[in-house]
Specification:
Blueprint lengths: L2 H14 L25 E10 L3 E13 L2 E10 L4 E11 L7 E13 L6 E12 L2 E11 L6 E9 L5 E10 L5 E11 L2 E10 L2 E11 L1
Antiparallel strand pairs: 1-2, 1-12, 2-3, 3-4, 4-5, 5-6, 6-7, 7-8, 8-9, 9-10, 10-11, 11-12
Amino acid sequence: MNFIQRLTAPLVLITGALAGGACLAGRPLAVDDANVNDVGAGHVEAWYARTAGGVNVWTVAPAYGLIEGVEIGGSLARDATNKVNTSALQAKFRLTPSRKDGCNVGAVIGASQPNNDTTNTTYLNGLLSCNGEAGSLHINLGANRPPDSPTLLTWGLAIEREFGALTPHLEYFGQEQSIPTFQIGLRTQLNKNLQLDGTVGRVGTDTLFSLGLKFLF
C-alpha cells in the first residue's frame, strides 16, 4: 500500500462511516455528531462513493447501542479501483446528555486496517453537537496515526436542518497534509426504518459523490 493510501485509509471510515442518532459519522454526513444509538438499537449503512482521483469505494457500516451512552461500530470498505479492502472498529461515547435546544459532547476511538498491510491506523475524535430551531451544528477535532507517519490532525464542521421530509447539510472537513473537502448532502426517510441519502463534494479539482441507504433496527 502506498503512502497516499495509508493516509486516506482512515478517511474511508470518517467519510463513509466518518451518527444514533446518526453515528459512525452517519450517512450522509462525513462530520460526526455527538449522539449514539439507544441501548439495544442499531443501524446498518451501505453506500457507494466516487472519491478523489476517481476511486470507487463500496462500504458497509453497522453500529449498535451496547450500553447507555456507548455505541460500538465497524465498517468494511472495498476500494474497487485499487483492489484493497479496509476494515475498521470503533467505540463511540456520548459524554454529556443530548439536548434538543443546546449542546452536548462525545468522543470516538478506533482503528482501521487494510487487507494488504499488518499495521493499524488508530484515531481519536472529539465531537460537539449543538441543536436549536435553526438546525444542528457539529464540530469535530481529532487525530489519527497512520503507519510510518507522524500523528495527523483532523477536523470537521457541519450544519444540517430538517425541511419536512428532507434534511440537507453542508460540511467542510480535512486532515493535516491533505486538501480539505467541501460537501453538500441530502437525506430522506423512505419509511420509519429505511433512509435514502446522497452527497456531492469537491476536493481540489476532483468532484466527489455518494449514494447510500441506512437501515435502522
